[in-house]
Amino acid sequence: MKPAVFIAAAVIVVLLIFGIYMIDIEQTQETRLPDVDVTVEGGQLPEFDAEVGEIETGTKEVTVTVPTINIQSPEEAAREGS
């Protein structure tokens, strides 16, 4: 190992140790959650009066004419036109 690498590693270790002893963190106050008072009373849903019309449903038979559609591919159209 080269002496420069050894000296650099030693300096880093000394700085880390020095930094650890230079920083001192102490808790000065305990944590406390806020006091919460919750009061729950019975609720009430709104009440409505509604007048609605009458709807009569039923069925009836109806005849509907449906158009027919003839679809041909371009190949089929070419064959029929020839």
In what range is the share of β-strand residues? under 5%
Number of strands: 0
Order of helices and strands: HH
Low-confidence residue ranges? none
Give the count of helical stretches.
2
The value of Rg in angstroms is 45 Å
Shape: flat
Mean pLDDT: 84
- Residues in helices, as a percent range: 25-40%
Measure the end-to-end span. Answer: 95 Å
Q: How would you sum up the major sheet?
A: none
Secondary structure category: mainly alpha
Explain what this protein looks like in three dimensions.
This protein is mostly helical and 82 residues long. Helices cover 34% and strands 0% of the residues. It is built from two helices and no strands.
Architecture blueprint of SSEs:
Blueprint: H1 3-22, H2 74-81
Give me a quick take on this structure.
This protein has 82 residues and is mostly helical. It has helices at 3-22, 74-81.
Provide key terms for this protein.
82 residues, mainly alpha, 0% strand
